[in-house]
Amino acid sequence: MEQTEKRIGILTSGGDAPGMNAAIRAVTRSALSKQIKVLGIRHGFTGLLARDTVSLDLRSVSDILHRGGTVLYTSRCPAFYQETGIREGARACRELKLNGLVVIGGDGSFRGAQALSHQGIPCIGIPGTIDNDVACSEYTIGFDTAVNTVIQLVDRLRDTSQSHDRCSVVEVMGRHCGDIALQAGVACGAVAILVPEVPCSIEMIVEKMQRTLRTGKRHFIILVSEGVAKSEGFGSVPELAVQIQARTGVETRATVLGYVQRGGTPTARERVLASEMGVRAVALLAQTNPRSRIVAVQHGRIVDLDLDEALTMSRPFNKTLYDIADEISI
Ligand code: F6P
Prior knowledge:
This protein is an alpha/beta fold. Helices cover 42% and strands 18% of the residues. The chain has twelve helices and eleven strands. A seven-stranded mixed β-sheet has the order 3-2-1-4-5-10-11, sandwiched between helices. A four-stranded parallel β-sheet has the order 7-8-6-9, sandwiched between helices. Helix 7 links the parallel strand 7 (192-194) and strand 8. Helix 1 packs parallel to helix 10 (268-285) and helix 3 crosses helix 4. The termini are far apart. Bound molecules: 6-O-phosphono-beta-D-fructofuranose. 6-O-phosphono-beta-D-fructofuranose is lined by residues 14-15, 76, 106, 129-131, 173-175, 226, 262.
């Protein structure tokens, strides 16, 4: 018998990000307003394989708009890197009678969505990760909140660094992408911003600190993206702090901000964009023969792009902003 009722699945995958709940709410409410049923899949692709689902109605997404994390839970799913895992995922989608799947996550999650779409399951990606590292989109849900969290925390570090004439070396998240370090570094007046996209050396940092010391600067903030901190050459942030102190004579402390950057109330920007993206995702799946797409932000506008094509794109680093930071942090 032909399935007449339309039903979509939604899951969150990879690292959680503030604003994911706003996207879940938007997808659910928009779908229901079009008479499309919504099945929440808990714990990402792992939950899909386990058929760990919950039916979502209008009220099940009440009071989540302002909450960080994801009410659908999330995971990283090693089984989805295997052909057998993908085939099982596609089987689960058919068993659950899904006409399509919304995947909220980052690049890795979209690779899973792509593999599923090659098995005939239409998938729509919504970029959700604090890292801002989805190539086709200027913006990922969670990034704005994470940057604002980093700014608040670094401002506190500045108070104590200023009081003690110290240097604070701060590690922020971002995996292979320096965007959190860059934006927060500009906003916090960091004397140096270390990102994986731009080569830097300890000599360059020390030289800049010595130059600014001569002009009377007494305390310093250095932001280090985890992609740099974990690369060879620099060592860990505490090791870097020891080297800076030894070479400049400025008392230096290291702080690794860690997972505190992933939580918290989503900013207005997240909530609005997540709502817009969620509605666009449903509009795409509501089409007669939906195709797999990624919803993205380009030139400040919401667009959607072919999933396969989107995953071949690369995103240029904002070197102009990096240079601006360098020019004015003297
Ligand atoms: O992708 C978001 C992120 O927070 C990265 O910045 C970080 O490298 C990674 O997740 C940490 O992953 P996990 O939660 O698996 O430790």
